[in-house]
Protein: Gfo/Idh/MocA family protein
Organism: Kribbella deserti
Amino acid sequence: MDLIRWGIVATGNISGSFTRDLAELPDAEVTAVASRSMASADRFAEVHGIAQRFDDYRALIDSKVVDVLYIGTPHPQHYAVARAALEAGVAVLCEKPVTLNARQARDLADLSRANGTLFAEAMWMRTDPVIQAYFEDLRSGVIGAPKQVLADFGFFKPELPERLLRPDLGGGALLDLGIYPATFTYMALGKPEAMTAMAEVNEDGVDLVTSMIWRYPGAMASLTCGMTAQLPWIAAVSGPEGSLMLPHRWHHPDHYIRRTAKGDERITVPKSGLGYHYEAAEVMRSLRAGLTECPAFPHDETIDILDLLDEARRQTGVTYPGDDEFLGG
Ligand SMILES: NC(=O)c1ccc[n+]([C@@H]2O[C@H](COP(=O)([O-])OP(=O)(O)OC[C@H]3O[C@@H](n4cnc5c(N)ncnc54)[C@H](OP(=O)(O)O)[C@@H]3O)[C@@H](O)[C@H]2O)c1
Protein backbone atom coordinates (compact mmCIF):
# COMPACT_ATOMS: atom_id res chain seq x y z
CA MET A 1 0.00 0.00 0.00
CA ASP A 2 1.30 3.48 -0.88
CA LEU A 3 1.77 5.47 2.29
CA ILE A 4 0.80 9.13 2.27
CA ARG A 5 3.34 11.21 4.19
CA TRP A 6 1.96 13.88 6.53
CA GLY A 7 3.81 16.87 7.96
CA ILE A 8 2.38 18.63 11.02
CA VAL A 9 2.74 22.39 11.40
CA ALA A 10 2.48 23.64 15.01
CA THR A 11 2.54 21.59 18.19
CA GLY A 12 -0.51 22.93 20.05
CA ASN A 13 -3.74 21.37 21.22
CA ILE A 14 -5.44 20.44 17.95
CA SER A 15 -2.25 19.29 16.22
CA GLY A 16 -1.89 16.71 18.99
CA SER A 17 -5.46 15.41 18.57
CA PHE A 18 -5.19 15.27 14.80
CA THR A 19 -1.84 13.47 14.87
CA ARG A 20 -3.14 10.95 17.38
CA ASP A 21 -6.03 10.13 15.06
CA LEU A 22 -3.78 9.65 12.02
CA ALA A 23 -2.67 6.44 13.75
CA GLU A 24 -6.16 5.10 12.86
CA LEU A 25 -5.16 5.11 9.17
CA PRO A 26 -2.77 2.32 8.15
CA ASP A 27 -1.96 4.12 4.89
CA ALA A 28 -0.91 7.36 6.62
CA GLU A 29 2.54 8.10 8.00
CA VAL A 30 3.55 11.21 9.93
CA THR A 31 7.06 11.88 8.70
CA ALA A 32 7.76 15.37 10.06
CA VAL A 33 6.69 18.06 12.48
CA ALA A 34 7.57 21.76 12.58
CA SER A 35 7.32 24.16 15.48
CA ARG A 36 8.58 27.65 16.16
CA SER A 37 10.94 26.04 18.67
CA MET A 38 13.06 22.89 18.40
CA ALA A 39 12.29 21.94 22.00
CA SER A 40 8.58 21.85 21.22
CA ALA A 41 9.10 20.01 17.91
CA ASP A 42 11.22 17.41 19.74
CA ARG A 43 8.66 17.01 22.50
CA PHE A 44 5.82 16.52 19.99
CA ALA A 45 7.91 14.14 17.87
CA GLU A 46 8.74 11.98 20.90
CA VAL A 47 5.07 11.67 21.89
CA HIS A 48 3.95 10.76 18.37
CA GLY A 49 7.01 8.86 17.14
CA ILE A 50 7.91 11.30 14.34
CA ALA A 51 11.36 11.05 12.74
CA GLN A 52 11.97 14.51 11.27
CA ARG A 53 11.72 17.70 13.32
CA PHE A 54 12.07 21.33 12.26
CA ASP A 55 12.15 24.58 14.22
CA ASP A 56 10.82 26.51 11.25
CA TYR A 57 7.59 25.90 9.32
CA ARG A 58 9.18 26.91 6.01
CA ALA A 59 12.00 24.35 6.44
CA LEU A 60 9.41 21.59 6.67
CA ILE A 61 7.66 22.80 3.52
CA ASP A 62 11.00 22.84 1.65
CA SER A 63 12.15 19.47 3.04
CA LYS A 64 10.34 17.35 0.41
CA VAL A 65 9.67 14.69 3.05
CA VAL A 66 5.89 15.15 3.10
CA ASP A 67 3.04 14.85 0.60
CA VAL A 68 0.55 16.86 2.62
CA LEU A 69 0.76 19.45 5.36
CA TYR A 70 -1.66 19.74 8.26
CA ILE A 71 -1.73 23.30 9.65
CA GLY A 72 -2.76 23.75 13.29
CA THR A 73 -1.58 27.31 14.07
CA PRO A 74 -3.97 30.05 15.28
CA HIS A 75 -6.16 31.37 12.42
CA PRO A 76 -4.17 34.52 11.46
CA GLN A 77 -1.11 32.34 10.77
CA HIS A 78 -2.96 29.90 8.47
CA TYR A 79 -2.84 32.01 5.32
CA ALA A 80 0.91 32.58 4.92
CA VAL A 81 1.83 28.98 5.82
CA ALA A 82 -0.83 27.49 3.52
CA ARG A 83 0.21 29.80 0.69
CA ALA A 84 3.88 28.87 1.03
CA ALA A 85 2.98 25.16 0.94
CA LEU A 86 0.71 25.48 -2.10
CA GLU A 87 3.37 27.51 -3.92
CA ALA A 88 5.85 24.70 -3.22
CA GLY A 89 3.38 22.09 -4.52
CA VAL A 90 2.69 20.58 -1.07
CA ALA A 91 -0.97 19.70 -0.46
CA VAL A 92 -2.67 21.45 2.47
CA LEU A 93 -5.27 20.51 5.05
CA CYS A 94 -5.64 23.65 7.18
CA GLU A 95 -7.63 24.14 10.38
CA LYS A 96 -10.83 26.14 10.48
CA PRO A 97 -11.36 28.98 9.79
CA VAL A 98 -9.00 28.32 6.93
CA THR A 99 -8.13 32.04 6.77
CA LEU A 100 -9.32 35.18 8.55
CA ASN A 101 -11.50 36.24 5.64
CA ALA A 102 -12.93 35.21 2.27
CA ARG A 103 -10.43 37.21 0.21
CA GLN A 104 -7.53 35.19 1.60
CA ALA A 105 -9.38 31.88 1.15
CA ARG A 106 -10.26 32.78 -2.45
CA ASP A 107 -6.57 33.44 -3.11
CA LEU A 108 -5.61 30.00 -1.72
CA ALA A 109 -8.32 28.27 -3.78
CA ASP A 110 -7.09 30.07 -6.93
CA LEU A 111 -3.50 29.08 -6.21
CA SER A 112 -4.51 25.48 -5.54
CA ARG A 113 -6.24 25.32 -8.93
CA ALA A 114 -3.41 27.09 -10.76
CA ASN A 115 -0.71 24.84 -9.24
CA GLY A 116 -2.75 21.63 -9.28
CA THR A 117 -2.15 21.21 -5.53
CA LEU A 118 -4.84 20.03 -3.14
CA PHE A 119 -6.18 22.52 -0.62
CA ALA A 120 -8.86 21.83 2.00
CA GLU A 121 -10.32 23.41 5.12
CA ALA A 122 -10.19 20.98 8.05
CA MET A 123 -13.90 21.36 8.85
CA TRP A 124 -13.96 17.88 10.44
CA MET A 125 -17.70 18.06 11.15
CA ARG A 126 -18.37 17.57 7.42
CA THR A 127 -16.77 14.10 7.39
CA ASP A 128 -18.20 12.91 10.72
CA PRO A 129 -20.20 9.71 10.01
CA VAL A 130 -23.17 10.77 12.19
CA ILE A 131 -23.32 14.19 10.52
CA GLN A 132 -23.18 12.52 7.11
CA ALA A 133 -26.05 10.18 8.05
CA TYR A 134 -27.96 13.18 9.42
CA PHE A 135 -27.74 15.11 6.15
CA GLU A 136 -28.64 12.03 4.09
CA ASP A 137 -31.75 11.70 6.23
CA LEU A 138 -32.56 15.39 5.82
CA ARG A 139 -32.18 15.17 2.05
CA SER A 140 -34.45 12.09 1.93
CA GLY A 141 -37.34 14.43 2.87
CA VAL A 142 -38.21 12.66 6.13
CA ILE A 143 -39.18 15.99 7.82
CA GLY A 144 -40.47 17.65 4.65
CA ALA A 145 -38.84 20.79 3.27
CA PRO A 146 -36.49 22.34 5.87
CA LYS A 147 -38.10 25.53 7.18
CA GLN A 148 -36.09 26.45 10.29
CA VAL A 149 -32.57 25.85 11.58
CA LEU A 150 -31.44 26.42 15.16
CA ALA A 151 -27.75 25.99 15.94
CA ASP A 152 -25.61 27.20 18.81
CA PHE A 153 -22.03 26.67 19.91
CA GLY A 154 -20.65 28.00 23.16
CA PHE A 155 -19.40 27.49 26.66
CA PHE A 156 -18.02 29.36 29.64
CA LYS A 157 -14.61 28.65 31.14
CA PRO A 158 -13.25 30.78 34.01
CA GLU A 159 -9.84 30.67 32.27
CA LEU A 160 -10.23 30.87 28.53
CA PRO A 161 -7.22 29.91 26.37
CA GLU A 162 -5.29 33.09 25.55
CA ARG A 163 -5.81 32.45 21.84
CA LEU A 164 -9.56 33.04 22.17
CA LEU A 165 -9.16 36.55 23.62
CA ARG A 166 -6.23 38.02 21.68
CA PRO A 167 -7.08 39.95 18.48
CA ASP A 168 -3.63 39.19 17.02
CA LEU A 169 -4.38 35.47 17.39
CA GLY A 170 -7.83 35.80 15.78
CA GLY A 171 -9.65 35.68 19.14
CA GLY A 172 -13.43 35.81 19.41
CA ALA A 173 -16.42 33.51 19.34
CA LEU A 174 -17.52 33.90 15.74
CA LEU A 175 -14.41 32.68 13.94
CA ASP A 176 -13.56 29.93 16.41
CA LEU A 177 -17.03 28.64 17.37
CA GLY A 178 -19.61 30.37 15.14
CA ILE A 179 -18.09 28.78 12.07
CA TYR A 180 -19.74 25.48 13.13
CA PRO A 181 -23.35 26.78 13.23
CA ALA A 182 -22.55 28.71 10.03
CA THR A 183 -21.28 25.59 8.24
CA PHE A 184 -24.18 23.49 9.55
CA THR A 185 -26.77 26.03 8.38
CA TYR A 186 -25.07 26.33 5.00
CA MET A 187 -25.11 22.52 4.65
CA ALA A 188 -28.86 22.49 5.44
CA LEU A 189 -30.09 25.53 3.51
CA GLY A 190 -27.22 26.88 1.40
CA LYS A 191 -26.45 30.56 0.98
CA PRO A 192 -29.00 32.94 2.55
CA GLU A 193 -30.58 35.82 0.64
CA ALA A 194 -30.07 38.12 3.65
CA MET A 195 -28.43 38.03 7.05
CA THR A 196 -28.20 40.14 10.14
CA ALA A 197 -25.74 39.89 13.02
CA MET A 198 -25.29 41.38 16.49
CA ALA A 199 -22.42 40.91 18.92
CA GLU A 200 -21.20 41.64 22.41
CA VAL A 201 -17.67 42.92 21.84
CA ASN A 202 -15.16 43.44 24.67
CA GLU A 203 -12.77 46.37 25.14
CA ASP A 204 -10.10 44.61 23.04
CA GLY A 205 -12.49 44.36 20.09
CA VAL A 206 -13.03 40.61 20.47
CA ASP A 207 -16.59 39.25 20.17
CA LEU A 208 -17.61 37.33 23.28
CA VAL A 209 -21.04 36.52 21.83
CA THR A 210 -22.31 36.74 18.25
CA SER A 211 -25.84 35.93 17.08
CA MET A 212 -27.08 35.84 13.50
CA ILE A 213 -30.33 35.41 11.59
CA TRP A 214 -30.02 34.04 8.06
CA ARG A 215 -33.10 34.47 5.87
CA TYR A 216 -34.03 32.30 2.87
CA PRO A 217 -37.06 32.25 0.60
CA GLY A 218 -39.44 30.23 2.80
CA ALA A 219 -36.91 29.39 5.54
CA MET A 220 -35.04 31.04 8.42
CA ALA A 221 -32.05 30.15 10.58
CA SER A 222 -31.03 31.35 14.07
CA LEU A 223 -27.36 30.92 14.89
CA THR A 224 -25.53 31.88 18.04
CA CYS A 225 -22.11 31.35 19.60
CA GLY A 226 -20.42 32.61 22.71
CA MET A 227 -17.83 32.28 25.44
CA THR A 228 -19.80 33.67 28.42
CA ALA A 229 -22.43 30.98 29.10
CA GLN A 230 -22.88 27.22 29.09
CA LEU A 231 -25.03 27.07 25.96
CA PRO A 232 -27.11 23.97 25.17
CA TRP A 233 -24.66 23.44 22.25
CA ILE A 234 -27.23 21.72 20.03
CA ALA A 235 -28.39 21.95 16.43
CA ALA A 236 -31.64 21.10 14.69
CA VAL A 237 -33.34 21.37 11.32
CA SER A 238 -37.14 21.38 11.34
CA GLY A 239 -39.77 20.98 8.66
CA PRO A 240 -43.54 20.49 8.61
CA GLU A 241 -43.20 16.73 9.18
CA GLY A 242 -40.69 16.81 12.05
CA SER A 243 -37.20 17.65 13.29
CA LEU A 244 -33.71 16.19 13.15
CA MET A 245 -31.87 17.10 16.34
CA LEU A 246 -28.19 16.84 17.18
CA PRO A 247 -27.39 16.70 20.91
CA HIS A 248 -24.87 18.58 23.10
CA ARG A 249 -21.49 18.95 21.36
CA TRP A 250 -23.35 18.28 18.15
CA HIS A 251 -20.40 18.89 15.81
CA HIS A 252 -18.99 15.44 16.66
CA PRO A 253 -22.07 13.55 17.90
CA ASP A 254 -22.57 9.88 18.62
CA HIS A 255 -26.24 10.00 17.61
CA TYR A 256 -29.10 12.21 16.49
CA ILE A 257 -32.82 12.18 17.14
CA ARG A 258 -35.35 11.93 14.32
CA ARG A 259 -38.68 13.26 15.60
CA THR A 260 -41.64 12.58 13.29
CA ALA A 261 -45.24 11.37 13.59
CA LYS A 262 -43.72 7.94 14.33
CA GLY A 263 -42.24 9.33 17.57
CA ASP A 264 -38.57 9.82 18.50
CA GLU A 265 -35.96 7.56 16.95
CA ARG A 266 -32.35 7.61 18.12
CA ILE A 267 -29.99 7.11 15.17
CA THR A 268 -26.44 5.98 15.97
CA VAL A 269 -23.53 5.30 13.64
CA PRO A 270 -20.39 3.42 14.74
CA LYS A 271 -17.29 5.61 14.97
CA SER A 272 -13.68 5.32 16.05
CA GLY A 273 -10.93 7.59 17.36
CA LEU A 274 -11.54 11.24 18.14
CA GLY A 275 -13.06 11.85 14.71
CA TYR A 276 -10.20 13.65 12.94
CA HIS A 277 -9.07 10.69 10.85
CA TYR A 278 -12.23 10.90 8.73
CA GLU A 279 -11.14 14.28 7.33
CA ALA A 280 -7.61 12.93 6.83
CA ALA A 281 -8.96 9.90 4.94
CA GLU A 282 -11.00 12.22 2.71
CA VAL A 283 -7.84 14.19 1.89
CA MET A 284 -5.93 10.97 1.13
CA ARG A 285 -8.68 9.63 -1.14
CA SER A 286 -8.70 12.95 -2.99
CA LEU A 287 -4.90 13.02 -3.33
CA ARG A 288 -4.89 9.50 -4.77
CA ALA A 289 -7.61 10.52 -7.21
CA GLY A 290 -5.47 13.47 -8.35
CA LEU A 291 -7.99 16.06 -7.12
CA THR A 292 -7.14 19.58 -5.96
CA GLU A 293 -10.40 19.89 -4.04
CA CYS A 294 -11.93 17.31 -1.69
CA PRO A 295 -15.57 16.47 -2.47
CA ALA A 296 -16.38 16.88 1.27
CA PHE A 297 -14.66 20.28 1.51
CA PRO A 298 -15.72 22.28 -1.57
CA HIS A 299 -13.71 25.49 -2.03
CA ASP A 300 -16.80 27.48 -3.04
CA GLU A 301 -18.57 26.57 0.19
CA THR A 302 -15.54 27.40 2.36
CA ILE A 303 -15.39 30.79 0.65
CA ASP A 304 -19.16 31.44 0.81
CA ILE A 305 -19.15 30.73 4.55
CA LEU A 306 -16.20 33.08 5.11
CA ASP A 307 -18.05 35.72 3.06
CA LEU A 308 -20.95 35.36 5.52
CA LEU A 309 -18.61 35.61 8.53
CA ASP A 310 -17.01 38.69 6.91
CA GLU A 311 -20.46 40.26 6.59
CA ALA A 312 -21.28 39.41 10.23
CA ARG A 313 -18.02 41.07 11.31
CA ARG A 314 -18.78 44.10 9.11
CA GLN A 315 -22.14 44.48 10.87
CA THR A 316 -20.65 44.02 14.36
CA GLY A 317 -17.44 46.00 13.81
CA VAL A 318 -15.01 43.16 14.59
CA THR A 319 -11.66 43.43 12.78
CA TYR A 320 -8.27 41.72 13.09
CA PRO A 321 -4.71 42.98 12.56
CA GLY A 322 -4.22 40.31 9.86
CA ASP A 323 -7.37 41.20 7.87
CA ASP A 324 -5.44 43.21 5.28
CA GLU A 325 -2.70 40.63 4.70
CA PHE A 326 -2.83 39.64 1.07
CA LEU A 327 -0.06 37.79 -0.73
CA GLY A 328 -1.78 37.16 -4.07
CA GLY A 329 -0.98 38.91 -7.33
N1 LIG B 1 -11.06 21.12 14.44
C1 LIG B 1 -11.12 21.27 15.75
O1 LIG B 1 -11.75 20.50 16.47
C2 LIG B 1 -10.36 22.39 16.38
C3 LIG B 1 -10.25 22.44 17.78
C4 LIG B 1 -9.48 23.46 18.33
C5 LIG B 1 -8.89 24.40 17.52
N2 LIG B 1 -9.03 24.33 16.16
C6 LIG B 1 -8.37 25.32 15.29
O2 LIG B 1 -6.99 25.02 15.32
C7 LIG B 1 -6.20 26.19 15.37
C8 LIG B 1 -5.27 26.11 16.57
O3 LIG B 1 -6.00 25.94 17.76
P1 LIG B 1 -5.36 25.25 19.07
O4 LIG B 1 -6.47 25.16 20.04
O5 LIG B 1 -4.62 24.04 18.71
O6 LIG B 1 -4.35 26.40 19.52
P2 LIG B 1 -3.07 26.26 20.47
O7 LIG B 1 -3.22 25.11 21.40
O8 LIG B 1 -2.85 27.62 21.03
O9 LIG B 1 -1.90 25.90 19.45
C9 LIG B 1 -1.55 26.72 18.39
C10 LIG B 1 -0.10 26.45 18.00
O10 LIG B 1 0.19 27.29 16.89
C11 LIG B 1 1.56 27.65 16.90
N3 LIG B 1 1.69 29.12 16.71
C12 LIG B 1 2.15 29.73 15.61
N4 LIG B 1 2.15 31.04 15.74
C13 LIG B 1 1.70 31.29 16.98
C14 LIG B 1 1.51 32.49 17.72
N5 LIG B 1 1.79 33.71 17.20
N6 LIG B 1 1.04 32.38 18.97
C15 LIG B 1 0.75 31.18 19.51
N7 LIG B 1 0.93 30.01 18.85
C16 LIG B 1 1.40 30.07 17.60
C17 LIG B 1 2.15 27.14 18.22
O11 LIG B 1 2.87 25.96 17.91
P3 LIG B 1 4.47 25.98 17.83
O12 LIG B 1 4.93 26.67 19.06
O13 LIG B 1 4.81 24.55 17.79
O14 LIG B 1 4.88 26.71 16.59
C18 LIG B 1 0.94 26.78 19.05
O15 LIG B 1 1.18 25.70 19.91
C19 LIG B 1 -7.19 27.36 15.38
O16 LIG B 1 -7.29 27.90 14.09
C20 LIG B 1 -8.51 26.73 15.80
O17 LIG B 1 -9.65 27.35 15.21
C21 LIG B 1 -9.74 23.34 15.60
Notes: The chain has two domains: 4-124+275-296+319-324, 129-268. The chain has a mean pLDDT of 98. The CA atoms of residues 160 and 227 lie 8 Å apart.
